[in-house]
Amino acid sequence: LSSVFSSDMLLEYGSVDANKGTGLLRLCDLLGIPVMNSIAAGDQENDTAMIKAAGLGCAMANATDSLKNAAGYITHNDNDHDGIAEIIYKFILNMSSGVL
Fold it and tell me: For residue 91, which of 37, 44, 26 has the smallest C-alpha distance?
């Protein structure tokens, strides 16, 4: 049994063999996508395994310090202010600005 916080007030319990990281690995395998070509983003402790498993792990600006330490990139914006859009523009669309 594992336990991890998904917010300041929510503690999740689950199998040690199942987490967002193992889910990402399984999804990549099912879709035939090399894990190195995956990008994961998160802001809480329950995202840590996924951030570590991804080819590029991104932490939102408002993420916990331990998640930021695990990430390869930290957004300038938080999850309520287009942090995901920042990742999409920068790493998927290869655009330095958010203007199409």
Answer: 37
Q: Which two tokens stand for residue 62?
A: 């408002």
Tell me what pLDDT residue 61 has: 97
DSSP 11-34: EEEE-TT-SHHHHHHHHHHHHT--
Q: Nearest-5° angle of CA 89, CA 63, CA 47?
A: 85
Residue indicated by tokens 């879709």: 31
**CA gap 41, 74 in Å, rounded:** 9
- For 4-44, the pLDDT digits (tens) are 777 778 888 888 888 999 999 999 999 999 999 999 999 99
